[in-house]
Predict the structure.
Amino acid sequence: MDTLQALKTRRSVRRFQAGQVDAGALDRALEAATYAPTGMGRQAPQLVVVQDAQTLDQLRKMNMEVLGGGKDPYYGAPTIVLALAPEDVNTYVEDASCVLTYLMLALHEEGVASVWVHREREMFASAEGKALLKKWGIPEKYQGVGSLAVGYAEGDYPQAAPRREGYVLKV
Amino acid sequence: MDTLQALKTRRSVRRFQAGQVDAGALDRALEAATYAPTGMGRQAPQLVVVQDAQTLDQLRKMNMEVLGGGKDPYYGAPTIVLALAPEDVNTYVEDASCVLTYLMLALHEEGVASVWVHREREMFASAEGKALLKKWGIPEKYQGVGSLAVGYAEGDYPQAAPRREGYVLKV
């Protein structure tokens, strides 16, 4: 689809089908996401794709601990893509946010739904998070910035709320 | 163009033509940018479009003050779009980063080039920045998150550097 159409039609989805995302679609979207611009062209962010039941469950529990309870913060999605970035890069939050945005749009083009989930900052500042980084071979300086819960949308696709008046100010 | 093509072909441009951006193209891109997802759907970010010579010059000087000198940090672009967001929204940096990413991609679809410029955080934390906010009717709690320098590309369009090996880790 045309890019403006993609930007305007992509919505955050919080109900997912149980089935896993097509591997080719996910790979194409991940590759496109790596083309996001990053501060000084350093390509500093790190994407981590999680699909195994045990690690998905661990991430859910870690995120709920930050939340202090409640429901699954990843909405039962069959795939979670984490975005981490090294804290010694001064634009690390913006860079990883840009990569996540690229990824959500690329997934939308591929017919795959997603929702941005937060609290990875706290998750990967914890001892359990740091143990996961070590297990994955990622240096400790990498901070959690955010993630996408990824899967095929279940039920009706959400509609956009009206846009806020005055969102764009021309001075 | 197709979204994946847009994501993979859009590059940061640092040389701009002197001519102003087509008003219709800019408006379509700005409107599309407001469809970016934001934390809790709050649409908290604020875009500010600057095109008058005096304010452009003021922003350049303010940014150079943060840098401590050097060349024009906005590369002589005829338009600067600032992204601000309220600090009492815990996802304000991520939200405004997402909106800027939407905007850069929408501009690319419209044939308009851009580069993400930083240091607005420091600029709008200063007395001069706060005075600008007041002049524009924006509450003081809004922080500068980033901006795009926007215009038509001058010279050859940049090519993508090779992507970093290991950017995507599957665990």
Remarks:
- The beta strands of chain B are 46-50, 79-86, 113-117, 142-151, 168-170.
